[in-house]
Amino acid sequence: MNQTFLPPQCAAQSVGTANQLFIQLIQTLITAHCTIPQSNIWPNDYGPTAEKSDGEWFDFVVVGAGSAGCVVANRLSENPKWKVLLVEAGGDPPFESEVPAMSSANQRTEYDWQFYAESNTSCKALNDSCYWPRGKMLGGSSAMNGMLYVRGNDRDYDRWAEMGNKGWDFESVLPFFRKSENNHFSQFVYGDNGRYHSDSGSLNIDFFGEDPFEKTIIDAGIEDGYKFLSDINADKYIGYTKLQGTCYQGRRQSSAKAFLATAKNRTNLHVLKYGLVQKVLLNETNRAYGIEYRRNGKIIKAYAKKEVIVSAGAIMSPVILMLSGIGPKEELKKHEITPKYDLAVGKNLLDHIATTIFFQFDPTSTDPLAAYDNTYNLAIHSTGRLTNGPISTLSAFINIDKAKKIPNIQIQYSFFTKNASNLSAYIKKCRFYDEIATKLIDINQNHDIVVIMVTLLHPNSIGFMNLSGSSIYDKPNIFPNYFGAGDDLKTMISAIRHQVSYEKSKSYSGKHGKFVKLPLKECEGIEYDTDEYWECYIRYMAATNYHPIGTCKMGPQSDHEAVVDDRLRVRGVDGLRVIDASIMPYITSGNTNAPAIMIGEKGAEMVIEDNN
Prior knowledge:
Layout: H1 8-12, H2 17-35, H3 47-52, E1 56-63, H4 69-76, E2 84-87, H5 95-98, E3 115-117, E4 130-132, H6 154-162, H7 170-180, E5 181-183, H8 186-190, E6 203-207, H9 214-223, E7 228-229, E8 239-242, E9 244-245, E10 247-248, E11 251-252, H10 255-259, E12 269-272, E13 276-282, E14 288-295, E15 298-310, H11 313-323, E16 326-327, H12 329-334, E17 341-342, E18 353-361, H13 370-381, E19 394-398, E20 409-416, H14 423-430, H15 434-444, E21 448-456, E22 464-466, E23 477-479, H16 488-500, H17 506-509, E24 514-515, H18 531-541, E25 542-544, E26 576-578, H19 593-611
Parallel strand pairs: 1-2, 1-15, 2-12, 5-6, 7-8, 15-26, 16-17
Antiparallel strand pairs: 3-4, 6-9, 8-19, 10-11, 13-14, 14-15, 18-21, 18-24, 18-25, 19-20, 20-21, 22-23
Helix pairs in contact: 4-19, 7-19, 16-18
């Protein structure tokens, strides 16, 4: 082995064997590094072919390869007689998408739409206001989210049905959750909760690794009277739990990996990357017959014999509809867009707002080489902290009124040990202003830090979004209206007080757990622990939990805000559907990726039924 790769003093202390072993180790790590992204699993880009054949005909054109769009394209292309085009604005996911702990690294990059919401009632502690990341790559947001697999509860979907959406009650949607699911925890599939789970689907679901700090949190919850639930996706909804995620063998399982990678060799499925769809083509009778998109500076058309399906997500689906002339008539006229059909597109915007609080604890023992160990274990064994998500899978679902059996608050956690190397990355992601960042870094020099995100599950406040211009390149205006109605602020204050009261629990006090009072300029003159103080705190520290839905609302003809009917067909337009999280009439009780994939499954079956 040539020893010139090593420093002279290192080489001089070896007769050769040790050097050779270390170099082999380095080569092994380099090889493993190259195999983690798995770039060979993605479908080929149909874009170069499409650029040569402007105006090609397909049976179906699907817009958006996100959580739902990948499912739709997969299911439709199962019929070899149907020619399917899937158009995605981004490309293949990057290396960081594969590594669960690195998902936030994709934010503010080319793989992110980088939206911003307008809000004067929240996000004051953030230097760049209310930032709303959304995935712009194969898999969409499922390729950059926290991977937590939460369906919500039966009441969520029964409520949809009660709002006039036939076939969307819990018992009707449960088979579509199970259809996707490949759950690797056999006790869920074959145990008492077997009716809720399956191991025969394409979407790998499993538990993440353990975190040693979780016991402290769980013990405090049990002291408070809550139970530990083994499975939040069954029939019990209140308590502390360990969530499963869209992960397997230490790697992310995005919708693209589950539904596109497995279908990449189908000759009737064409996946076009870096195609920015700017409108749906409508004829004089308002029938959708194709799309117009931009790629490499060219404007290209693709035609659909049967249907155009928009699955571009809760932000871009309404944008595409409005640019096509489908939306609020007066709003379209402002941007000199000819109205084709007057619908409440962009209304009914709902999101989970989360307020972040911080606790400091006595430091746990840490290994200064842990970061290297974690990298090695990821590359070689697919284990270690890097295979965990950016947010702990420990979560609590509670109701401020303990007598109620449906949660209205979700609690999520992130853990940073003393002198944590990843704390600065977390602060950079959140973009806290300098005083807050400095305070947290100073505390972390001598203490562990636990980040607690208190999320409002059932907001009464409804926002909206609209166009800022007539070009697909114009970022939309997003107005979430956080805490704008009802008792939302009151519920959040009660939930935060409840979490801060855990200072007095045996579990927290045994580790000297203490709420961290942040330097919030406008709050400094207000008496601590008053409603006024917590309202001020919330307006600083509340921000999106990345779950926007509802902007192409599903509802009956009598619902003037409904954009699609219960078969997801756009009202007043033939041959056009929306199939993604934007159709939700109301938000579910938890992370929204699993419901979006279910919508893809159920929507695809409706398309198949209606076209057979």
